[in-house]
Amino acid sequence: MNALSPPAQLPELSSGELRRFGRHLILPEFALEGQRRLKAGSVLLIGLGGLGSPTSLYLAAAGVGRIGLVDADVVEETNLQRQIAHGYATLGTPKIDSAEKRMLDLNPDLVIEKHPVRFTIENAVELISQYDVIIDGTDNFPTRYLVNDTCVKLGKPNVFGGVLRFDGQLSVFDARNGPCYRCMFPEPPPVELAPNCAEAGVLGVLPGVIGSLQATEAIKLLAGIGEPMYGRMLLYDGLDMRFSTMHIAKDENCPICSKASADIELTEVAMVCSAPKMGRNITGPELEQRIATGDDMVMIDVRNPPEWATGMIAGAMPLSKPDFERALDSDDGTVLDAIPKDRDLILICQSGMRSQAVIRRLAAWGYDANRLYNLDEGMNAWAGEVVA
Amino acid sequence: MERTTPPDSCQQLFLIIAAVGVSILSFLITNSGVKDMAVIMVPSSLRRYTGQQSKISLPVATIEEALDRFSEFSSELRNHLFSGKALRNFVVVCKNGKDIRLLDGLATPVDNDDEVQIIASVAGG
């Protein structure tokens, strides 16, 4: 069962393409027609990070005719542990330029369309409508729900991949042939239960595994071969080295795919925090100002040791959230003595989530919530000086 | 040709007692609340609650009971899986690879060696 019909007129392959794709052409299931269908096909790749890196390279190398790239970020050194489409030579340059260079090196006949923008409600329909297959290589829940809803509205297959720590997930959501992403997960988790890779970590090769599988599914859809992963989700456990497949249910009352296309309204999925917020917020510039005036406050960085090594605000006390919680659980005076109750405490983490959790614990312990400050968006938004 | 000796009455009595004993024991095991062991497959994101164990065997009769027993590891884990009595919207549970929504939901029975998989949505890319 395949969602894509071949175009009436398939393009011819040049002698160079016949040579380059020889290993495909001798696959009886693939053969010349599969290769010509790839050349006639188009893919929109949303996100050029860990998943998008292998996907972009394999789709280029395989001979897909036209690939759209959506990403607004530039290459950073911390990307290179897993984002293999980029390298030191392209640090600081837009990811779409960095990937384009590698992709054209693999397939100079490829047509690349660069979209240096964030994927938003304003551009979602326009971008997705131009391509046959959509690949979700994004890194956050709101964008994933927007990709899903737009694909359902426009009747496009959504090749889904997700990774965290050592676990990966893969599926092809196509509401015409099975469940959509919302049938499986109607809502995103609350913020405090949804750590991202920057906070929870990810084994570098993991998006390589899942991204390569996304490329496989996209190629199958375009070439019209095999059985797409409609209604199934592949789970990959890198620690136990186990692949398993789940059969997932289509929800007849799905808020998106049970509706007619014209009735589907694209909305932004907000990430909410289900735990009550406590303490006060302080922005990066406000904290810089207080540091500059020699304010008598205590800053505590509750991230983990490897994160401290990437740079801390000068003068901040390193005390990881697990150590902090152990001290609070055990009433460890030696740790808590260093955390006065009569001064303002500034709690710092990478994105502001863990520090908020520590604030809740401190308030429950008896610290005055009005003297507890959470650094807004954590080190992600800190533009001031850091020390290693 | 070797001839078999018929068992004497003492041996016959012993065999009858043994057979009755086994039957009673078997009846007791089947009907005394001894349950089958289901295996919960723990995703790596939840292993911090289980001392990094990837599989937990639990003597349970239904999916609901399996998740209830599993949640005893930590109140934080229970909060991750349940909102009140209902499974959270971002958690999918499967029995032997099939979404329990395609079966009998939380009331789905589990037998010996059934695998219960917990899938939490992840957004990393």
Can you walk through the features of this model?
The complex is a heterodimer of chains A (388) and B (125). Chain A contains 15 helices and 13 strands. The N and C termini of chain A lie far apart (55 Å). The mean pLDDT of chain A is 92. In chain A, the strands form two sheets. An eight-stranded mixed beta sheet of chain A has the order 3-2-1-4-5-6-7-8, sandwiched between helices. Helices cover 33% and strands 16% of the residues of chain A. Chain A has two domains: 41-263, Rossmann fold (3-Layer(aba) Sandwich); 280-381, Oxidized Rhodanese, domain 1. In chain B, 31% of the residues lie in helices and 22% in strands. Chain B is built from three helices and seven strands; from the N terminus they run αββααβββββ. In chain B, the strands form two sheets. Chain B has a five-stranded mixed beta sheet, covered by helices on one side. In chain B, strands 3-4 form a two-stranded antiparallel sheet. In chain B, a hairpin with a 2-residue loop joins strand 3 and strand 4. In chain B, helix 2 packs antiparallel against helix 3. Chain B is elongated and about 75 Å long. Mean pLDDT of chain B is 79; it is low at 1-7 and 25-33. Classes of the chains: A alpha/beta (388), B alpha+beta (125). Chains A and B meet through strand 5, strand 7 and strand 8 of A and strand 6 and strand 7 of B.
